[in-house]
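Students often ask why we bother encoding 3D structure as a string. The short answer is that it lets us treat folding as translation between two languages. Here is a chain of 376 residues written in the first language.
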Amino acid sequence: MIIGVNARLLITNQPEGIPRYIYEVVYQMAVQHPETTFILYHDRKVTYSMTFPPNVQLKVIPLMTRHPLLWYIWFDILLPFYIKKDKVDVFYSGDGFLSKRVRIPQVLVTHDLAYLHFPQHMIQSHVRYSKKNIPVFHQIANAVIAVSETTKKDIVENLHLSGNKIHVVYNAVDGNLSETKVKISKKVEDLSVSAVPYFFFVGALHPRKNIKNLCLGFVEFNKKNKHAYKLVLAGRYAWKSEDIEKLINDYPDIIHVGTVTESEKNMLYSRSEALVYLSLFEGFGIPILEAMKQNIPVITSDCSSMPEVAGDAAILANPNDITSISDALGKITDPETRQHLINKGKSRFRDFSWKKSASDTYDILEKVCKKVGSDI
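And here it is in the second language, the structure alphabet:
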């Protein structure tokens, strides 16, 4: 079997949620099935140093796709030509996009339907494209993979898709990303040796991640505690982040360290009091499991998929309520509560595995190939 993979988003050694998912699942599928060829289609020459098994080929379809018009050209004009030339049996797309013009089975991964719930947090041309095309992609897919039961329910309710066509395959955290020896930035190194306790957030800084309320909740908490703590934010400034940047600049107890490497991220986790991950909406939320693996307690949102991922191993807060966030920070400073959550987290993160995710995904791809013209 030859599997074509949409790898447009695999462009960096520090992939965020969706490209991380694509990398880990494809890596494990290739390890588990050396008899299968995987062709990763990129939209630019890749410079990352992430490794793959020898049965993985990297190919470039030379059109950088960061605009709806370019998405159309890449998926519906260029990709079908490469798919046919390479004799691909099935196309696997982990970023929510499909081709309307390929003539082979396709499997679509849906991480969330944020464009329906928080369109104000996206570029409007992207929202218009999504509203027009994402329902179509779900209809033409031979199978749909949702990264959580929450996302599956969302698809059924909002896109009116049969639940039988949707298969839940979770994210995980026991990954294969590795680094050569890297220089640790001075800002991260100073935090790692500082005696000042801090709470930690990692992810892109944009409105859907709810950074503003996180910061305001922390400020309220810290005032009650005589400014004894810091809040450390790791991640790039993203879409509509001007208000977030101003908040960070206004409060010296909030530290933005920028984009971090895997080594820096793990160092920051290991010294933190807790992960605070209070998004308004998530399809999954890998940092929740990352913190549990690092034996760090978690505060996360009481909505969307986050309670599903956290189970009973986290404190849940209302992400729209600053006082709820402040109170959650107060609860997690209690030593007994911290240790209870750490113990719960040690067990919880083991419920998720990239090996299992890859095995489940491969089974779906294989069944789709055997049932051409029908859904599974």
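Translate back mentally: The first strand starts at residue 2 and ends at 6. Keep this in mind for the problem set.
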